[in-house]
Every structure is written in C-alpha cells, then in structure tokens.
Amino acid sequence: MPSPSQVPSARPAAPGDRFEQPTLDGMLADPLQLDLRHTTFVVLDLETTGGAPDGAGITEIGAVKVRGGEELGSFGTLVNPGVPIPPFITVLTGITTAMTIEAPPIEAVLPSLLEFLSGAVLVAHNAPYDTGFLKAACAAHGYRWPNPRVVDTVALARRVLLRDEVPNNKLGTLAAYFRVGDQPNHRAMDDARATVGVLHALIARLGGHKVHTLGDTIEFVKAVAPVQRAKKHLAENLPHAPGVYLFRAADDRPLYVGTSNDIATRVRSYFTAAERRARIKEMLGAAVRVDAVECAHALEAQVRELRLIAVHAPPYNRRSKHPERVQWLKLTAEAFPRLSVVRQLTADGAAYLGPFAGRATAQAAVDAIHEALPLRQCTPRLSARKASPACALAELGKCPAPCQLSISVEEYDAQAAAPLRAAFDGDPDAVVDPLLARIRKLSDAQRYEDAAAVRDRLAAFLRAAVRMQRLSALTSIEELIAARRTERNAWEIAIVRRGRLAAAATAEPGVHPRRTLDVLRPTAETVLAAPGPTPAATPEETERILDWLERPETRLVEATSGWASPARGAARWKMLLQAGR
C-alpha cells in the first residue's frame, strides 16, 4: 500500500502508454460504438466512514486504469476524512484514525483523481455508492463532476449470471466464482483489482449475448424486455442518413412507419431500455424486418412518412392514419346558402372552411357561425320565388325566414352569406365580434359556464380559419422553390407545387445549389390544379412544408406568384386563441 501522504498513481504511466480512446479513420471514435477491447476503463473502489455521502467520509481510494486486458496505470491513497473512524469500520477495513492523520484531505486528492478519470469509463462494484461519495465531494469543494459513463459490475452480473451459478452478487462471491487472482479484503486498491478481474470475466460472458460495444453493454444492464433483446438484430445494417423506416411483419405488411435524421440510430433506440411503450414492444414481437428509405433531407423524410402511413394505415401508428376522415364546413351555392358538414371538396362554387379533425369540432364551428350570423339552419333547398313552410326558429324570430320570402336573396347574401365567405378566406370579424360581445355579456351576468361554451365554439371556428388561410397562402402558388443551408454548409432544396412536395435534393458542400436544382427540376412531380385550400396534398403534408419554409434559415429561390396572407385575416386573432387556452 502507498504511504498515507502518497497521492500520485502507484505505477506511473510508461512513455508509450496512451490513455486516449482509439481513433477510426483519423477521427475520434464514438465511445459508445467502440468495441470493449478498445475501451479504457478506470475501475474504482472507495473505503468510507460508513455515513451518508455529504462531501466527506472517504478514507481510502483505489483505482486501476485498464484497456484490452492490460493495466495502464493505478491510483491509490489514504484520505483524511476529517472525523474519527468508527471502531466497526476499523474492524472491517483495518484502517484506523491514526493511519489517516497525515493523509491528504479529499479536496487535495480530487484534482489528481479527476485527471486520472478523464476520458475513461468508470467501473465500480455497486457504482451508485462510490459515485455518490465522489459527486458529493466535488460539490462540497467546488469541483465539476465530469459525469463519466458508468458500468456497475453488480448490475452487469445480475444480467450475465444465472441464479443457480452464484448465491449472490457480492464482490467476494464473484471473485471466488471467477477465480480472480486478487481477492477483495475491504481495502480500496485490493478491492479495485478484484473488481478488474470480475469485470474481465463478465465481459467474456457478454459475447454470448452479442454485446460487443460499450453502448451495448450500458443498454444490456438496463431493464430491456426479452423481445427487444431477441429482435435487436433488426437494427443492423441500416444507414446513418435521413429517411423513413418501416417495421414489417412476416407477410410483408408495414406494422409501423417512422422517420429520423439518422435511421440507424433511431431504429436502434427501439431495442433499448429507453423504449417503454407497451404497443411498440408488442409491435417488435411481430416484426421480422426493418426497411429503410433514404431521403435527401428531413423534410422529404417527413413527407414520405405521412404518405406511407396514409397508404398503408400501419396498425401501430396512431397519427396521420386516415387523412380522408377530416371534415369541412361547406357554405352551399344556392339562392339562400346554408352550412353543411362534408368530407369531400368539389368544384361546385361553394365556400369551404377546414379542415377539422372530427365532426364534433366542425359542429362547434357551425354553432359559432349560427350564433353570430343570421344564417338559416334548415336543410331543404329553398326557392327564391315560392314560399315554403316555416320552422320553429322562424316563428321564434331566430331566423330571417327566407323560406317565407321574408328576406330577398340580395339582403340574405349581404347580411349572412357574404360576411361568412369573407370570414372564411379573409376578415373573420363578422363572426368574432358578435361572439366576443356575447361572451362579455354572459361574463357580466356571471354566467361563466355559458361564456366558456361560447368561447370554445369561437375557438373552434378561429382555429380552422387560421389554419385554412395559412394553407391557402401556399397552395395557391403553382410552384415555389426554397433552399435551406445546413450546419455542414450543404443546401437542402425543395420544389413545392400547390402545397405538395414535388421534389427534394441536397447540394453537397462545394457543389453550387443552382446546378443541383437544374438537374432536379425536370424530375419533379407534375401537380395538377384541384378545388379547395388543399388541392394536391393532405393538410398535414402542406403544414410540414410550411414549418420548413418558415424557418429563419430557409431562403426562397423562386415562386410563380406571391406568397401572402390576408392583411386582416384570421391570423391576427392568434393571441385570442392563446389566451383561450
């Protein structure tokens, strides 16, 4: 053992020793992807006074640095805990108060210890105990804890060894089972060397579990479901590129579709302890293959994901599965127009508002409009020349009674239909102002629940108007080309036609983006005109494109017409919507 005042490592590093991680192709390798034989470990053990970690209490430190089965250096010292060592600790460890009197305090040891730990993976037996004391000491004395990756040999043994192999996972039991040369004796350096032997024996067992890297090891000791471990091979040989991935069943059906900027890394995460969703684990049980579709950049990947989900409706995707189920409000094209909730947009001269996610939200917007404007609520088609039987609303004065010809076609249009058309694609004040007045009146009368109901109906209408006007601003443009510069000085290029992504590419660094665009443009999808605010794509696809276009770093290259929103459009009421939430 070193003398009480000895702080440096017991075996200094030799001139040829290198503690840095190996490199691949001249670049620093990802530590998690390194094979375990190339990983540098510092195996550490502490002896303490037995109290709680409070920044003191450490009496001895032993640490051994190893890589590839070879010892690179060691660090050992007694530490003055600043308090008498309890007798039962002395009986257990053999360390007395007299032995630590001349030893350095922990604040003097920490700089050298932290330097010794730098760039290595920390290993300890029951690691939370040892790291807890070191973290507390760093916090108490103003040192930054380096937060190294940690491997706990207790947790690793629980995963590797069967219950009938060892009665427990104590260090002495494991060292005896693996016939380690250095047996533990409750002294820090001896226990650290015993832990080195146990670590190497456990690593030898990991090969049978197809665990070869540090990242695999860290995930292996976590609570990974058996199905995740059994299907982990599905994540192999996937590209580190943006794109879409599809988990497929034995009959080739897509079970789940996802997207990522790094397909390989994202798919690998499904087989780690971080994935806790029960439905995903169920999906993994049925999956037999993962297909990858590489894309030019993240926007194309997001769009392809939406399209694949819409086509295949994978059972384990919850969102975007049924874009055809959206609802629209239709103001009919007839002498006395009325509102109708429909699923299809047609070129029939009617005005539309939407899309709505469901019928309940669409009906809330209908109720808001009926409360604000004198629009008829009956469903028969009315004649401008012949009277029809009146309904109860007309008798109660809640309707201008066009059925009784009490109002002319021109007056009805001026009072109800024209303001509503303007509210759909321009200024929504004709609906907003009457409802705000109604909310104030109900609030003044302390009818707060009724006021909240009116507020919710107004919000349903406004959200749809904001969304549709935002979509229409882009879908009205026959072609728009935009580019976004990435952090690595490449240019992501998108050709958008009537709100649909028609083509995508990336101009690599050193390649002029115009040359890439000239090659891309002739291959872009032809998109024909169609009725409605979303003529060529689903609302979700156009919204993904809008989000990408509105990013500060995106640049507009060309457009066949101006991209603009109404000056007095629904978007100016966004603050009201936020306040309502």
UniProtKB/TrEMBL annotation:
One term under GO cellular component: excinuclease repair complex
InterPro entries reported for this sequence: DnaQ, GIY-YIG_endonuc, GIY-YIG_endonuc_sf, GIY-YIG_UvrC_Cho, Ribonucl_H, RNaseH-like_sf, RNaseH_sf, UvrABC_protein_C
Pfam families hit by this protein: GIY-YIG, RNase_T
GO term, biological process aspect, one: DNA replication
Region (Disordered): 1-24
Domain GIY-YIG per the UniProt entry, residue ranges: 240-318
Top-level taxon of origin: Bacteria
GO MF entry, a single one: DNA-directed DNA polymerase activity
Keywords (A to Z) from UniProt: Exonuclease, Hydrolase, Nuclease
Protein name, UniProt field: DNA polymerase III subunit epsilon
Species this protein is from: Catellatospora chokoriensis
